[in-house]
Amino acid sequence: MNDFATWMDFCQLLNITCTDSPYTRTNNIIESARTDKRLDRFMCNGLFLSLWKQVFGHVLPKLKSDHHPILLSSINPSDTHAYSFKFLSMWLHHLDCRHIVSSAWNIPVLCNLMHILTQKLKIVKSLFKVWNKNIFENIHEKVNSATSFLINIQSLISSYGYSDFLIKKKKKKKKTASHE
To answer: Which InterPro entries does its entry note (predicted)?
Structure first.
């Protein structure tokens, strides 16, 4: 560990603080053989920090691995980004998906071929947005709620140790949280 600290000093790297949990890896063993470690981390140099207003890491709930994923978050005051439309793969499993695309494609649009394609894609996008809201409600809210619950359970496990009740709750919420 001393060599690592020396290397960080030599490269003028700074450790970015992670919130939510002090550990990023566990061996998933209950009781006395359990080990929790902080193995994963973010590092940056002073120039990087000067370009961003705030930089911090989040330790996310682990779903499949023995490592918690970590997410780097930053706030840049000049960052104004319009979010793009995202096609959700879960839509393909719904029976109405094909109908929505074909109904949008059957709407007549007159112009050159590139304009027709652009307009039909805009129509599909708007139909998917309405359909998603009506059929799936807010799936992101459900996933966020399950993830939040999972974080709380993992925090309880970190503080008080494992119990059968917490393990069962954790497994149930893991399924919901990983369905995004």
So the answer is: Endo/exonu/phosph_ase_sf
CA distances (Å), origin 86, targets 79, 82, 83, 137, 179 = 20, 12, 9, 16, 16
DSSP 82-138: PPPP---GGGGGSTHHHHHHHHHHTS---S-HHHHHHHHHHHHHHHHHHHHHHHT--
Determine the Cα–Cα distance for residues 125 and 119; give it in Å rounded to an integer: 10
Between 180 and 56, the higher pLDDT residue: 56
Most distant CA atoms of the chain, gap in Å:
72
Instruction: Please give the pLDDT value at position 54.
Output: 80
Mean pLDDT of the chain: 80
Are residues 72 and 57 in contact, defined by beta-carbon separation less than 8 angstroms?
yes
The CA distance from 126 to 130, in Å, is 6
Extract the tokens encoding 121. 């894609």
| Rounded Cα gap, residues 152 and 170, in angstroms | 9
**DSSP designation for 178:** T
How far is it, in rounded angstroms, from Cα 170 to Cα 163?
11
Total-model pTM? 0.42
